[in-house]
Amino acid sequence: MNPDFNTILFAFGLTLFAGLATGVGSTIAFFAKRTNTKFLTISLGFSAGVMIYVAFVEIFVKGREVLTVAMGDRQGWWVSVLAFFGGIALIGIIDRLIPSQENPHEARKIEGGEEEARSGKLLRMGTMTALAIGIHNFPEGLATFTAALSDPKIGIAIAVAVAIHNIPEGIAVSVPIYYATGSKRKAFRLSFLSGIAEPVGALAGYLLLLPLMTDSLMGGLFCFVAGIMVFISLDELLPAAEKYGEHHLSIYGLVSGMAVMALSLLLFK
Fold first, then answer.
1. Is residue 3 part of a domain?
2. 83: in domain
3. Overall domain count for the chain
4. pLDDT band at 115 (very low <50, low <70, confident <90, very high)
5. d(CA 149, CA 251)
6. What is the pLDDT of residues 217-252, one digit of tens each?
7. What's the mean pLDDT when you consider all of the chain?
8. Does 145 fall in a domain?
9. Can you tell me the distance from the alpha carbon of 194 to that of 183, in angstroms, rounded to the nearest whole number?
């Protein structure tokens, strides 16, 4: 399983697209007067549905198939499962190391920033949120990149899901920094830089693994990434969706994301 240069370039481009969606969130924060909570709830639920379905139905299965061919059925299954939970453990540890008040997945709305502007903690909160998003985006970038290497069509779906996920993160960075400094340029710059961490993470991860790349390592990486995607969906996307709006809307979005992803995989097989 050795992807060619064009596939690698395409995967990197998708990761860049997903990361830069934080800038979209930043722009929305500057020009929208109120948060469209219903739209965000459904969108975040939809992203979670896409990622969960693809993680279990495509990415993990493909990784396990590669590993069982390379290592045998029993050993391949063990390595697949260990890699899957290893991905969950990595992103879980990263999440635990970031204080909850500065976690980028704590839902924040566009409105209300003026009242908070008096707080001296706003600038620090925005800056730390940007740093937290940058840290989170390293494994998320690797997940998008690896999915695109596995199958470009799946990569597109995952990139769109991650991009939707990154829009409220851009809002989370921009709102406190803008109201603390009054500078749209500074808020947008920090939001943009936090998103750049995603393609940087993908590139760094791939370059570190490239000299060692074998079918077994690629299969393990797929399972590892599936674990990251499931954790992101269950710990970040769905809780954020529920905080922005109604519980049922987030579930409708979740099921819709799964259905659309299933249909696209059936149509383009």
1. no
2. yes
3. 1
4. very low
5. 29
6. 888 988 998 998 898 888 877 887 777 667 788 899
7. 79
8. yes
9. 17
